[in-house]
Design a protein that fits this description.
Number of helices: 6
Strand content: under 5%
Largest sheet: none
Shape: elongated
Order of helices and strands: HHHHHH
Number of domains: 1
Structural class: mainly alpha
Helix content: 55-70%
Radius of gyration: 17 Å
Number of strands: 0
Distance between the termini: 27 Å
Length: 153
């Protein structure tokens, strides 16, 4: 019934590593296309954790995927908030998000008047979405029939 923490750790490593890859300046030109790319970190973390978890019941993959997605989503939310709240700090896909918010401020009044609150809300919403996608991927990973496992030394 407990969590297989090495599987969760592997899922978080995949998800956070993928987010770090998206922070490379090559991805700075992405705008709306960055949204599904970032949310895919939850799918990656959840699938890795759910596929590697030792399964004692039908929902073990979902629990492991959710936990890995929650930790990856927390890393995303913190990174998103820091990147958009610190001037000149946004790189990679976070630069694209910063650009979208800055150009939308003139059209959507709430962004101009409540910028920090909007950034915080988007960070929490994005982190929660990553966690939810982690659950879905973790739940489905064991059902795909792949016998994933750790390499024994």
């Amino acid at each position: 019934m407990g969590l297989d923490w090495p599987a969760v750790g592997a899922g978080v490593a995949w998800g956070v590593g993928y987010l770090a890859l998206l922070s490379v300046p090559v991805f700075s030109a992405l705008r709306w296309a960055a949204v599904p790319l970032v949310l895919a970190s939850g799918l990656l973390a959840g699938a890795a954790a759910g596929g590697l978890a030792r399964h004692d019941d039908d929902e073990a993959g979902g629990r492991h995927g959710f936990t890995a997605g929650l930790l990856t989503g927390t890393c995303f939310a913190v990174g998103f908030w820091v990147a958009l709240s610190t001037p000149g700090f946004s790189v990679g896909v976070f630069h694209g998000f910063n650009y979208l918010l800055a150009t939308s401020a003139g059209r959507v009044g709430v962004i101009a008047t409540h910028g920090p609150l909007v950034v915080s809300a988007l960070a929490v919403l994005g982190g929660a979405t990553v966690a939810g996608l982690g659950y879905l991927a973790g739940r489905e990973a064991p059902r795909r029939g792949a016998d994933a496992g750790f390499v024994e030394p």
